[in-house]
Amino acid sequence: MPSLSHPSNWRATDLQQDQSWILSIDEQTRQEMIKTVVAVADPSKTLFDYRREDFIWPRANVFLRAALQEVKNRRGIALIKGLPRANLTAHQFEILTWGLGLHAGVPRPQGKKTQYISAVRDAGVSYRTGTGRGYSSNADLDFHTDSSDIVFLSCFNKAVSGGKTIVSSSMAGHDVMVREYPEQAKWLYEPIAFSRQGEQSPDEGPFVMQPVFSVQNDKWFGRWNWNRVRSAQKIEGAPQLSAEHHAALVQFDRVMRRPDIAFEMWLEPGDLQIINSHVTLHSRTEFTDHDDPDQKRLLYRLWIAPPDSEPLPACWRDLYRSCEPGTVRGGIRGFKHDAQCAEFEARQASACGMQPYKL
Length: 359
Ligand SMILES: [Fe+2]
What we know:
Bound molecules: fe (ii) ion
Largest sheet: 7 strands, mixed
Mean pLDDT: 93
Oligomer: single chain
CATH class of the domain at 12-170 and 264-351: Alpha Beta
Helix content: 25-40%
């Protein structure tokens, strides 16, 4: 077992007591962002029409770099507060999020439609089906990891009630399992089937085999998603879980929800949460939305492959398509990953000094 004496191995009280992972941007930085975004945001453009160099905001980048340092090398979570929400339209706020993403790495596609930003809102989708995705529903979500190294989530509108964000350190979950349930912890290093929820591209299978815990170069990685594991049990050809393996997963999921492990937080309009998928799990409570369409809960989600990523264990290759460090990896390519997507990714990779993966 690797050494897990690491800042990512935190408990809920650690995040409460030391809030250096929360960065509040100042008025001058806000003004810099407003000026830049108002000048470049154009609804007639596609996301691919924007370049990294369109977003010249040296002050904003100081905050972004500090947040990414916390996410990649320390606790695996950061919160930037005070994005200029009140001064921007929803579209401008989306482009602001996109601009920050372009400074962090290569945005990754996120589903069937090969979208590079997901508007996280209740679109009436049912989460607990073989093809459901939580971000388009108002449901209580299972603790899970998204399919990319880094996740950005910016908040434009809150719900009337509910929609609380919960983040747990999966490394802490591992720690608890090893100390309190050592026999069950061993099962979590064994591969299990995770469904792709019907979003696989033509050259991908309907599920991937991965353990919950894996290690590469003494670095620890976690992946979890009950919804996808349950869905995979119904896919023909997917290995069935033994009773002991199932019980170990139930125990781990229970541990991740314990009040000493799970950190609860409200994302306010103007907040940007950034998380490292490999050392955290996240969840969200069910919510009740506003009637007015302009006030409905709305967040923008970006998935990022950063230029300084670590090598991944080989068992991640099926999901991320590349385990090599600093490569364009992760995401869900979906059904529309075409030459334009490849061109955008190659261009952005080159701007970040990275190698795109081979088509
Ligand atoms: Fe998620």
